[in-house]
Amino acid sequence: MDRQCPPIRFDSVPIEVSVVSGLRDLREFVALPYRLHAATPWIPPLKLERYQFLNRRLNPFFTHGQAQYFLARRDGRVVGRASAQVDYGYNQYHNARWGMFGFLDFEDDQGVLELLLGAAASWLRARGCDRMVGPMNFQVNDEAGVLIEGFEREPLIREAWAPAYYQHRCEQAGLTKAMDLYGWDLSISDRERMDPSLPKIAERARNRHGITIRKMERRHLRREMDQFAEIYNAAWSRNWGFVPYSKADLDAYAIDMQLVYSRDWFMIAEQAGQTVAMAITIPDIHQVYKKMQGRLLPLGWLYYLMRGRIIDRVRVGFLGVLPEYQHTGVAAALYLEHFNVAQGTRQKKGEASFILEVNTSMNRGLEAMGGRIVKRWRVYERQLAPSG
Questions:
Q1: pLDDT, tens only, 80-95
Q2: Where are the domains of the chain?
Q3: CATH superfamily of 15-179+379-383
Q4: Model confidence over 265-287: pLDDT tens digits?
Q5: At what angle do helices 221-235 and 247-260 cross, to 10 degrees?
Q6: End-to-end C-alpha distance for the chain, whole angstroms
Q7: What is the spatial distance between Cα 314 and Cα 267, in angstroms, rounded to a whole number?
């Protein structure tokens, strides 16, 4: 694929950037990627879900953050969109003054991107931010980064997809790399690709350290999410982009997980009845969304009910171990359980994605599972000079 960016187009019709105001603007904000990415590997999410996600009263992000949405128009036609947001929970935890940008979509026009980034930077600067990081919708735990490798592959649930020109335009706009994220392809039915030491380490975890694995119960899922938060906050607290889950975040996350819950893939590792590690692997509901084409009606709801017959891949969404138990080999036991589960389900393949390039232990573990990197996303940053 030719990745050379075409020269900047100069258009006599000016580009106007405005704040999203009212239902009509919001509809255009939501609709843009459906038009922009038609006939690409991008998979349209449910429009109803997008409206809920952007709603300040419904999304728990707004209990610890604020955001503004922008549209770029040329001659009345929407040609780009972006958000600017401040996560006060993140800034308080890290003693930082970061602002984020996200929901970035734009036609292949440098001027459109420059104006959107300028609007986001101005909004963040006025709120005391000294750095702009993104894209992320709204946090790094949501869709994050610009795809820079793997354009031909479909995105799995909560994976970002963008055409190749996004990277070139972003870098042409002076954005610099903050962090790369990896997407690993996993064939969890092929034990021959597995590191032969993995079963031995898993056996040691069971026999020497008393590690057992059980599956989460749907009726107790909200309570299990509290344990998930304890593991996550302890295991990931030093990771780039980390922000602890609030109660409101967990309430919403538990509802999301109910919609994609699969007992086979929601795993808890225990020692003497104490939770020491977790793995939440999600059946890829994007395969259903692809058939629904963003709509519940007329037949979208039927595809959802038939999801068990449609979904044949998973996304490893989270795997974490309490630091004091990392020596036990419990991670290997959870990795091996993925192969065991795959033997008895339709899901034989998947991806582990949004893995930080600096997360050495996770990347080594996925390599031991026989994985290979097939996608990369880049999160960018820009220093913001003080306003005034």
A1: 999 999 999 999 999 9
A2: 15-179+379-383, 188-370
A3: Gcn5-related N-acetyltransferase (GNAT) (3.40.630.30)
A4: 999 999 999 999 999 999 999 99
A5: 120
A6: 44
A7: 14
